[in-house]
Amino acid sequence: MGKRFYFIRTKVDADLKNSRRSRPDSFNEEQVLKQIRDDCQQCLEKEGQKNPQVFLISNFYLSLFDFPKLTEYMCIDLPLDKSHALVLAMPDITEKAIEMKKTALQETIELESLRSILQDPPTERTAKLQECLDHYRSIFRVNDEFLQKLEEEIKIPLKKLKDLSKSSDFLKLFKNHPPVEMKAMKTPFHSDPELGKSFSENLAIRLHFLDGVVKDAKKILKKAGDPPEKNASMMERVTKLLK
Q1: Is pLDDT of 213 > 90?
Q2: Is residue 156 classed as helix, strand or coil in its secondary structure?
Q3: pLDDT greater than 50 at residue 238
Q4: pTM of the model
Q5: In terms of CATH, what superfamily is 1-79?
Q6: Residue among 64, 68, 71, 69 nearest 16 (CA)
């Protein structure tokens, strides 16, 4: 029928925990995962599926196992508009996911700057840039609302999380954006230098905002996954989550 199917095996963390509990001396994380995957594939092949790809998912920790790979496959398979929406809705569970969001936003950022220059009165453009920054911070989950939820989940004081998020200071980011190199910046306003300058500056500020928010997202991601989880095996990390 031309439809794409994704076969997902959930609660892998619970299977690993049970396996380790029942066979503590011979437990091997990779072998258990391989057995789960092979069993799922064999069952699907018996039902007529050819070369089914099975994604193993943790219900508690999305960055483990195959969830990042699943989202990548879906982004590739979906039409461009749906892929774009999916990328922006993905949780920031890996640096690669963060970079995918950044790329998706970069694809439309020139159009947004152009729309602002053509539609927004000059007196309203600063407010529109504030909205732009707020939107980026929401997309990358570094806004106050999400940080409050994160504080409850990972037990790190909200102040420490906010200290990592430098993009919360709009005026500082706005004033410290890199100078616009007019010769290097291409604009659609060749016959109107002043409008071209406004467009270039608006675009430079948006790109500066995006870079700042991406840096915040990566710092918060690293803080959320710091030791003891940082160098632990999947099973050790899952065990801590399930206690």
Answers
A1: yes
A2: coil
A3: no
A4: 0.67
A5: P-loop containing nucleotide triphosphate hydrolases (3.40.50.300)
A6: 64
